[in-house]
Queue: 4 jobs
Job 1
Amino acid sequence: MNFYLSIFIILYSVACGFTYTDPSVTNSNLVKRFEYKLSFKGPTLAFKDGSVPFWSFGGSAIASDEQVRITPSIRSQRGWIWSKNTLSVDHWLLDVKLRVTGRGRVGADGMAIWFTETPGVEGTVFGSNDQWKGLGIFLDSFDNDALQNNPIIAVMVNDGTQSYDHQHDGSSQIQGSCIKDFRNKPFPIRLKIEYINQGLTIYINNGISLDDNAFELCTHIDQIGLPKNGYLGVTAATGGLADDHDVLEFLTHTFSDRQALAQNQETTHEQAKKYQDEYEKYERELEQQQADFRKDHPEATTSINEQQVFETEYDREFRVILEGQDQIRLSLTTIDRKMAELLGRIERIASSGSGQPSGVAGLGSNIPDDVARVQDINRVINANTDMTRTIQNFGQSLTDLQQKVNNLQTNLNNKQHDVTGQQPVDSNVDSKAFNELRDTIQQIKSETNILLQKIPDQVKCPTVVSTGDSSCLGSYTFFVIIALQLVIFIGYFTFKNRQDHFSRKYL
Ligand SMILES: [Ca+2]
Ligand SMILES: [Ca+2]
């Protein structure tokens, strides 16, 4: 900014010297409130979709983060933005920050700030409709009647019957005005529009000072007679000449009478107390009726123990864990039985010895009735860990078993070849292989027994109601069933070959 302009601004501020004072400060009976649904301002004025919350706009208007450009500096444009909600109190204050800029020495047409009974529609009066009902404040840039009195800020209230006299800048219709050049100022200009006790006062900060409170009086109109309720709007229009008409901020505050507010609050409190009393009375009556009923019908008032009827979340989770344990235990019992049968068959067929203990362990399947608690959880976890380790050993043993069976099968095949060639048969190799096979299966069975003995000792299962036929299949169960099938298949395949071999040997 150039030096002389800075000096001018300082001198102007000193000369004006007027500082705006809020009505709530001068009149302590007024309580000020910000109306966010009747306001907009940057830096996030518009949503990402370009809309302005609680406002609608159209025509040439475009909303951005920092401002709403009502018209661009293009000829014959009309734009508008209107509030979606009404202003319906007796005292209010509008604080509007705007900017009118253009390349020409003279601009057109101008801008209007509205408070009308219905939202305006696009029209001929600074972008809005004529014959409006309510207040119009015009920032009239173009001097239509050539009286050298523009730009001007003019106030006109219309009852819906008057048509604005454009040719004479509405000079015979306006109720108040001040001649201010609001175009092309270094800073945005600001208007404060007060409506207090049915009197309208307009103050202006003419955009040559950064002092937010450096306002000067534009005009004051007593008993202006505005509608009780109205919509707020800003419109603008360009003609043969054009300006950018931008609104940077539109802030609305309302003022409430402190005494009336206190009375309302008192009424509200009385109403709340009344409702509270009614509720307490109803509650007492209900308790009395319940007591009377229990007295008259003692047989129908069995008390309910919720702990017995309802299962807690803890009990439910623990019951699921124990059910899973029980399923694993049952599956291992089945494996153990199958393994014993298989071992018996091996011993009978191979005739490699007698009196081998079957090794079937007695299984304690009784489930204690008491419900396990926190300390039992640790025991369940430990049991699971042991079981996992045992099953891993089980898998390793199966691998060894498979390898030995493969070796045995290879030997059998070789012997078949020898038998075909009328060679003597050496049964020592068969005996050795079968002994190894039997030992391995015995080892698996022993490990299974260890696992089975651990589970009932370490886990105290609660009495489970209606859990009988659970269809859940755990991962351990799945694994051991697969292993069982593998063992049976290998055993069957091996001894079938063995039988064939014997048959051929004795033919
Ligand atoms: Ca004009
Ligand atoms: Ca004029």
Job 2
Amino acid sequence: MNYPLKKGKAAQQAHVGLPEGTFEEEHGRKGFYGKSAHLYHTHPPTAWVRFEGKLRPHCLDLNKLEPADQKNPKGEPVAFMGNDDIILHVSRRTEPMPFYRRNADGDELWFVHRGKGRLESDFGPLNFEPGDYVIVPRSVTHRIVPQTKDNFFLIMESKTEFEEPEKGLLGQHALYDPAVVTTPEPQAISEDKEWEVRIKAEGEYSSLFYPFNPLDVIGWKGDLTVWKINMRDIRPIMSHRAHLPPSAHTTFVTQGAVVCSFLPRPLEKDPEAVKVPFFHRNTDYDEVIFYHAGNFFSRHNIYAGMLTLHPRGIHHGPHPQARLAQATKTETDEYAVMLDGLNPLHLTPAGEAVDWKEYWKSWLEDVKKPAPHRPAEAVKAAATAMAKPTKTAGNSKKPVGARLVPKRVEGKG
Ligand SMILES: [Fe+2]
């Protein structure tokens, strides 16, 4: 069957002119790309009163993680969630790595939540700042050299490459012009001292040692490199007449996941259009959102540095407070990173330790208690950092869009 049916009381179009007193749910496959039905409920699908069993929504306060690299320069980031495709880590590195590193297990996408510094690699140095997405392809030799002490990096590790989505009808300049992509200039480091290169393969580190600095590349060419874009340079699309699905905000695609960026934008103006994310039950994806800066419109009691995980099968949608606020709000003021995993994501013991166990109650209409943790300084710092661009001295801005073969986005949720 490939035509829509319409039964009972239903809206003419999705997300617009909902029947009086109803709560719309999009029950769809392949994220927002497959077959779908819109269900008009008489209660919010999140109005549960009790959970039994292991499946429930999670909210991790990543500010509470204590990665080994925060205090020990030889330490590692901490992994808090993952599956066979994707592993999520947090690094709070305060000191430069006294070694070089190479990940033979996967590609890495670093999101800079807080802190500034330099990523040294085979391709040359690349400065980073808050809001940067830095792509470090598999097996690139690299080293993190922070310039600040209060650093917070979210690392998304994938078995396959992170690539740009196909932009289709929107054209190549949509979301961001490829000219804002920054790539490193070669800069060989001449140094007669022993350097360790740590190589991660099959989850284990081995080390090799050189009597010189391994970053001795004086030139490079090709379509594979370290590169970055800042979230600030992404210009989200929206419709004034209909709420667009999260897939409209896709930034990267990789085999086991899709990464989207939520940025400030005006809300829909059409009086009949819904202005908050519609309810859905993540039929084919586990959905992760990392809250970077701003006020998180659709979530109550969520602050910067927190991360939610909504597993497939359980509904999620706006908190009751957000549904009420949509009558008066005219724009969003949030910066967040969403990752939808194709296969179920599981918490590690470190993730379990910072999980807000009562999060599932946060949709209850009478929820009034404050969140368990509010890093006010962190919120302010991140918001300020996003406010204006910082010159990234020493880096060239060259479009690399042509070399990144666009991949079809096979749905996301
Ligand atoms: Fe969602």
Job 3
Amino acid sequence: MKYCHHCTALLVLRVPDGDDRERHCCDACNAIFYQNPKNVVGTVPVFEDQVLLCKRAIQPRIGKWTLPAGFMENGESSLEGAIRETREEAGASVTVQEDSLYTLFNLPGINQLYMFFRAELSNLDFSPGIESEAVALFHESEIPWGEIAFPVVKSTLEHYFRDLPKNHFPVRMFDVHHGDRRITTHLISHSHKSD
Ligand SMILES: [Zn+2]
């Protein structure tokens, strides 16, 4: 960010009064521009004991498989965004239960928050959107584990197939640390059935 969006003056990176970190500040019109993490929302679309995956037609990780997910748009909820991404990337319509939130990943290293919701395919009418080159249903034994695009997707799928036999899907939150070319995932919340 270089120029003020309001008056086009050159921005200065400094700590504003009363703040504790550097922001892009405009000394011409006094605007302050805050940069905050982006939310990525998606679904685990299931049909019976199979999960729908999309083969990526775009970078990054072109040709790898992923769950449908993307950046939230202004004016929509996280769940609405996840359902929209599922429609756009997999051409699939889904229904969700009230307890659909499943995994939440904090990725402070890249300033992103990922949220995945469990969803059921309304029908088997799905087809790849422009960001996908293929869409297919996989049983657990058919999942291309070595070809999964993102660690957050792999982790979500691993937990899903572990939870599936128990038909119990606690919400899990993870902190993902981007170390030296490695990503480690830590489970930091695991709710239990209360009944
Ligand atoms: Zn300005």
Job 4
Amino acid sequence: MGAACSSGKEQLVDQPKQVAATKPADAPAKPAAVPAAATSDPPKASADQAASSTPQPAATAGEQSAGPKPLKVFLIFYSTYGHILKLAETYKEALEKEEGVEVAIYQVPEILSPEVLEKMHAPPKSAHPVIDPHTLDQADAFVFGFPTRFGMMASQMKSFFDATGVLWQKGALHGKPASMFTSTASQGGGQETTIMTAVTQLAHHGMIFVPAGYAAGGVMFGVDEAKGGSPWGAGTLAGADGSRQPSEAELEAARVQAKNFATVAKKLAA
Ligand SMILES: Cc1cc2nc3c(=O)[nH]c(=O)nc-3n(C[C@H](O)[C@H](O)[C@H](O)COP(=O)(O)O)c2cc1C
């Protein structure tokens, strides 16, 4: 599958170690011990960057305490090659145009080694802060963006969700709305299944999945050009070698999804 996928072997080789490291987070027998272990040892970059980013939403909320309480949205993404990054920044810009919405954007910790990332020809990470799972309860709503890996979310995003056990125990995210968007190399590569299978994460937290539906209208129906996205959420096609960039139609669908999500999330939070 070209550059975007050609290094799948390296990733697959690397993954079992990571899965083994985080597997206890799923163990139902001892839920109390698991999340603590999973969240107490985040990657160094995560801890450092999260420390600097954590106060951001609280400070902003404090400044606006005189007016109506803004809807605090955490937009959390993972991107290897930048396609999800572009969608994430576009989604964020659109959310920020909505009245009474405050957005903080984060990336999840990388779990692949620098050596593996180099073999995958991955560019350096963006400067967005790395999310600290302990801070999730500060948000009223969530947007998650992640590329597909064989039709499901990338393991980096799954690893992040695996570190939310403590919040699950407290029911801290119960009832909070969330929307999602994705990226695949090809049109049949998982635009729908990647989001559909990710809904399980939301369900277990009691979160409310807000789909994109067909709110983007014509953009959703045109068949003259190849494009990502589905009623499940916005999406882009990276191409087999990763060279294709998000098209204007795909970005517009993300903007519409953002606007629609803000409307629904504000109603739920009211
Ligand atoms: C291990 C691996 C598995 C992948 N599986 C799929 C797949 O099943 N379907 C697909 O269309 N693309 C697949 N891809 C391509 C990625 O989805 C693509 O690189 C990604 O969407 C680009 O987004 P990003 O630039 O934000 O990382 C795979 C890539 C890797 C490395």
